[in-house]
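User: Predict the complex with glutamic acid.
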Amino acid sequence: MSVRTRVAPSPTGTPHLGTAYIALFNKAYAEQQGGDFILRIEDSDTVRSSKQSEVDILDALKWLDLDWDEGPDIGGSRGPYRVSERLTHYEAHANELIQAGGAFTCFCSQERLDELRREQQRQGETPKYDGHCLALSESEVQRRIDEGESHVVRLRVPDSGDCTFTDRIRGEITIPWQQVDMQVLVKSDGFPTYHLCATVDDHLMGITHILRGEEWISSCPKHVLIYDYFGWQFQELFHLPLLRNKDQSKMSKRKNPTGINYYRDRGYLPEALLNYLATMGWSMPDESEQFSYAQLTEKLDLTRISPRGPVFDVEKLDWLNGCYIRDLPDEELRTRFSSWAGNSANLEKIVSMLKERTERFDQVLTQVDYLIGERKPIDKEDLMQPPLSEEDVVKILDFAARTLECITTWRSDEIGVALRHTAEICDYKVRDFVAPLFVALSGRKVALPLFDSIEVLGLELTRARLRSAIDILGGISNKKLKRLDKEWTTLTQS
Ligand code: GLU
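Assistant: Here is the predicted structure with glutamic acid placed in the model:
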């Protein structure tokens, strides 16, 4: 049987390092075994999914050379490769599951479910569905569907006993059925949830090995049930350890940039980033830290992956990237550097910003240093500007980051409107609000227009500079973070 692996990102945001990490091991394993690596787009969340996000994910994976043998852009024998184009498969399988007694139709209203959750929380129980609609007769279900009542399909879960399955990295895992919720499989809009589309697609696409993040372990019992109801053969499972921040917490954008494009824009080489990702949980038999993708595919042994959470350490990545830079022949390095510096989208914006402010080309570099290169070192005094207190400045930097995270169209005019609005609801003069932002982002008090600069820097680099400025001011304690969360919610919801 030929090996088939897959990566199945949801197109709900900017391309994530975790997607590249999972794709890398899936691709390397398929290649080693002479099999196929498949890219499937899980756009089952109709509200959060976007075409742009899908395009960005495909581009980012291609930049890393993680291309696929079958996928939405190139097709293949088991397509289509987008969940939204496979709805008839899920509908047919959901109906079959209902007939077999493995799933049931549920009409419970959101109000009832909310009340149930609150009650269970009051009793100190873990919230989960109570089986209310399990007792409905077939005829009542049909009548209510015919009357157009909104409904979902839920998985029927045994109420006692345990589910045992094997993870090839961790060994046998047992989870009591009591801990497993009667998960929704088909939403009221007819779209499947992850559990239904992932299991049906993995089966129909002939996937033989599933390598994914460890956060999906708790979903396995639901998948085991679906596979058992259909009598399908379960794939070999490998749950790769989650990437972690230096403090061992789950890697998060608050502490580490998590977007692939951040690393591309800062001038990391794709092969260095891939190499570094390959050391997350895996180590070469000879312990070497610098190795190529080809060496990885030659030596990879999935059962040697360690379940202990690997720390994604940017300083270590810098070191490795430096090794790769030094290994490149000068001419190759020149080509790579100029294509990075001349990144056309950014260059266009930078040129139009400079046009009004430049008389000779040799004046360009001093103006755009912070847009193309690193920000100059700054200290506390640089960030403090009257009439703002230190607390004000931290709040402004934090609220600016939160504001930018909510922007859907990354353009300077939208950025300007959003930041001005935040200044207004927080009762700051726009002039005072933007002053620390200038310093945090450019390292200077005066720089090119702020909102245009933010557009060029992109969300991740902007956020990283705002966070580093906050750290220069002493950081935000957990207690203070809670206060800021509360204030932000109140301000933005009123
Ligand atoms: N759509 C899921 C994700 O984005 C896929 C999980 C899986 O690989 O089963 O992580």
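Residues 3 and 33 are 6 Å apart (CA to CA).
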